[in-house]
Amino acid sequence: MKYWTKALPLLCLVAIFASCGKNDRSATTGWKMNDTKWGGFETKADFDGQDTPPNMVLIPGGNFVMGFTEEDVPYDWDNIPRRVTVSSFYMDQSEMSNADYLFYLDWTALSYGESYREVYVNALPDTLVWRDELSFNEPYVQNYLRHPATKEHPVVGVTWEQAREFARWRTDRTNEAILIDKGILNPSPDAKDDQVFVTDSYLSGQYDGTPRKSLKDLRTGGERDVKMEDGMLQPEFRLPTEAEWEYAALALPGLQANEKDENYTDRRIYPWSGTSVRYQRHDKNQGKMYANFKRRGGDYMGIAGKPNDGASITTPVMDNYPNDFGLYNMAGNVNEWVLDLYRPLTTQDLSDTENHELNAFRGNNFRDVARDPVDGSVLPKDSLGRLRYEYVKDEEAAQRDNYKIGRPYDYLDGDEQSFAEYATNEHTLISDKARVYKGGSWADRAYWLSPGTRRFMEEDKSSRTVGFRCAMISMGGESGEQSRGGRTKNRFGISPKKRRRARR
Q: Which residues, including other chains, have CB under 8 Å from residue 198's CB and lie 6 or more apart?
């Protein structure tokens, strides 16, 4: 004990000098970094990896066969199997609950309710989705969203548009909480309208809140706000893409006999192993339903006292057995919105030379921050505190090689000319507002529990059987948390010191 007490000051000095000299010169130019005398270019030498967001699980990326793996019972033929690769990402353990959404509604009413009541009204779920001509569901209409007994049940009656707005709000509240916890900002619960914290506005220097402390600006010697380069702020929350959702639901790494051989021991019909919807192991849980679904006509929960799914409608969001990624209710309980635009003829032979098989997604709608046409500066934020965005015009993309139009909804859509014209309301219900939802629900048969199945609904409509969860990209290593705590060696066991020496 005495030895460590005496050695502690020396160890502190060593740590200080080591940190001062760590990556303080460019490996390519020899130019000093993080030094005011040398221009003050800053680099985050001690960044130790992206923090896992609240309620989320890291999903390590990989490739898988996306689409149907079993018989296409309805003969939709709208999800042809094809191999794609998904980059690492984070995903919510469970669907968003009523409690989660009520917090969002409360904040929206507090921040925008006085001046912009319509913002709060537009965020309200449609509780009338519970009504039915031949069912007595009025208690759910009145109580499902707000009663404390159902606070942990998944929120329903939320449109795709509302789910995206929730994800946007979650991004801002999470980053605001980070800056408050770091001592950068003071809490501002009374902020209204354009004074609320919005991540994009803050990063552009347009947030008017009261800072608690600022970071030292090595370029000017003064102070500055936090930048994305500092590694404090999180990327945006969003809905998962269809490929991400399906990959996460299948949890195929759980079938690998050995992590190093890349061989799967079996396919999966459901998010769990085997062909049964019941728990098969010989223990106290044997016979219990893996998911909350409709077993047959009129049977939503089984006979009282027997192994069943335990609910006539939804169950709490973490009430069932998780899959191998630790995700709950990737089958049953409620269907879930995903980011993709629905198209029935998703092509099966996308050319990998164009990288379409990496992070597969349909529905891109490219936007850029609105800027002054004269000096290129970011335009002032709007009355809700948000930056203004403009859609990319086709003429702006015409000279590019990687994309040619701003809204490539119908690109490579499976028709002969790789461009489909959908005559909405004439002979199809498919439009540019049709969005995919997946997973099956408490009111669906077992067929829809398979991750490869898919359905669609207009983005401005909602249902008592559809909810959502959020996702976020993982920036950095594909194995995720390998960089947490500092990555001292590369994957071949070579230290950064040796790597830098080899580069010189």
A: 172, 207, 381, 384, 385, 386, 387
Residues 338 and 81: their CA atoms lie apart, in Å, by: 18
Cross-strand pairs, 424? 428
Of 356, 361, 363, which Cα lies nearest the Cα of 341?
Answer: 363
Distance separating alpha carbons of residues 397 and 394, to the nearest angstrom: 5
Helices (H), 333-446: 394-397
Instruction: Give whole-number Cα distances, 52 to 8, 28, 57, 314, 468, in Å.
Output: 32, 32, 7, 28, 19
The whole-angstrom separation of Cα 227 and Cα 240 is 26
- Looking at the chain, the whole-number percentage of residues with pLDDT higher than 90 is 53
How far, CA to CA in Å, does 154 sit from each of 61, 98, 168, 268, 338? 27, 6, 19, 25, 16
Contact 217, 40 (CB under 8 A): yes
Beta bridge partners of residue 83, listed in sequence order: 65
Residue listed under structure tokens 């490739």: 63
CB atoms within 10 A of CB 1: 5
Strand 389-391 relative to strand 215-216, pairing: unpaired
Measured N-to-C along each axis, helices 98-112 and 160-181 cross at an angle, to the nearest 10 degrees, of 80
* Burial classification of residue 156, based on how many CB atoms lie within 10 Å of its CB (0-12 exposed, 13-18 middle, 19 or more buried): buried
Q: What is the tens place of the pLDDT at every residue in 348-380?
A: 555 565 677 889 999 999 999 999 999 999 999
> Does the structure show a pLDDT above 70 at 478?
no
Beta bridge partners of 185: 211
Count of Cβ atoms closer than 10 Å to residue 277 Cβ: 18
Indicate the pLDDT class of residue 267, thresholds 50, 70 and 90: confident
Spatial CB neighbours of 416, under 8 Å, sequence gap ≥ 6 = none
Pairing of strands 466-467, 335-341: parallel
β-pair partners for 86? 62
Q: Say what the pTM is.
A: 0.88
Per DSSP, the three-state class of 268 is coil
| Cα 85–Cα 86–Cα 89 angle in degrees, nearest 5 | 165
Closest CA to 441 of 341, 250, 309, 302: 309
- Look at 215 and 438; give whichever has higher pLDDT: 438
